[in-house]
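ok so i was messing around last nite and threw this chain in just to see what happens. nothing serious, just curious
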Amino acid sequence: MTPPRPPRSDVVLAATGFLGGLLLWALGLHSQGGPRPVPPWVALVPLAVVCLLQVNRRTMPRTGLAVGALAMVADRFTVGNLATVLVFTDLVYAAVVYGSPAAARRIPVVSGLATVAATVTFLAWLRSPVGLLFGVLFGLVTFGPAATGAVLRDHRDAAEAARLRAEQTALLAEMDRAQAVSAERARMARELHDMVANHLSAIAIHSTAALSLDSPETSRDALGVIRENSVAGLAEMRRLIGLLRDSGGDREPAAAPTLAGLAALVEGFRTHGTASGLAFALEDRRDAPVPLPAPVDLAAYRIVQESLTNALKHARPGRVRVVLEHTGGGRALAVTVTSPDGRGPGPRAPGSGAGLVGMRERAVLLGGTFEAGPVAGADAGADASPGKAWRVRAVLPVDDDDKERSA
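result:
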């Protein structure tokens, strides 16, 4: 694998350091005086080494620091070059900034301890304030760039952590928004289906009857039912559209249907089901109807409405019974709708299967249970035929915790 090319800035920095050191050497500006055991030109060797290490200071920071320290020791045996010292300080800085996290923690500590040790050594050796000056210079070459690199790396890591947190927050916010949009779309789909399905089913059944029966009186009655359901469905559609379009709160929203209007709902289905041979009955077995949480009240009403609509579309002639009762010691409301199972004669409206999905979603969202399917006559009720009954049953919690949760 081809190693990455060093940044141009590092190459320029290394070239500048070498040319500057070469100029100082040419002018005879050395960092150390006195006779040396090697020729003056040897001072250029440590300079060239540290400058080459500076080119790769980002990719090999630990190697650069180790070899650079050896080059600094070798520079002490020559006439010395100030550029070598300056380039080495950059290698110390790069080892902290670009090295591993462990190296970034250890290098400032080691350089600080080395500075203290060097200061004590110089003072003990020279026995004069000059030793303290040498210790300060040693600290400027080693501990100074290490501490600067540590501070910069801490700020860089904090900025990176803040950026990652911001990205995670944005991702979570987008996930919440997508879930909220999905939940709202599902709720709108359930409301739209439940509001107009029974009206459209009645329209489809009576229009088919009007077309298939050659009787002016029957056609007139069917057209009357069609008109009634068309007006009611249009009114509910307008109510929903008004709620969706009105975001300023200037208009008073229409009240959602509740179980208080269940008798009127069953009476309407009783009128629609006459042509299909269906008889609708409501049995409220609750000891004393108490106010329910709004979501439970609406869900129970919609479940009954959809169940009656399905019975109107699919049930054979017979009795459709709606039963409301408390269960679980009054901590839950049980809604049961039983209808004759099996397709009967006469016109029927097509179904999409979305009704059962919507009813199940309503029950599950409130922490309740839902079941729908054929049952034996004994389970369906005394007036049902064995093996020919369809039952929808939903149990919705209405205890205090659920009231607080739905508030």
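not much to say yet. Strands lie at 278-284, 318-327, 332-340, 369-375, 389-397.
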